[in-house]
Design brief:
Largest sheet: 5 strands, mixed
CATH topology: 2,3-Dihydroxybiphenyl 1,2-Dioxygenase, domain 1
Number of domains: 1
Radius of gyration: 14 Å
Number of helices: 2
Oligomer: single chain
Distance between the termini: 26 Å
Number of strands: 5
Helix content: 10-25%
Order of helices and strands: EHEHEEE
CATH architecture: Roll
Amino acid sequence: MSICTFGSINGRHTDQARDYEGVRLYWGPRDIHELRARLERLGYAVSEIIDRDYGQTEFFVTDDDGYSHCFGVATTKGG
């Protein structure tokens, strides 16, 4: 699994700070369906799995501390 984070938290980009949503963590699980089902069984409110037009299949969850997590893999369905 890989992790990437995006967002400026140092205050240098003041124009962007107005729309700042906080830290969002991006994960690349081996089995996105199995992970979503496990998180749902654990009681997390997970989004539906979505196939994006930019080639990623993903779902989102917010953890108990309020951090947003995106779990995504390359889309395998033909378009």
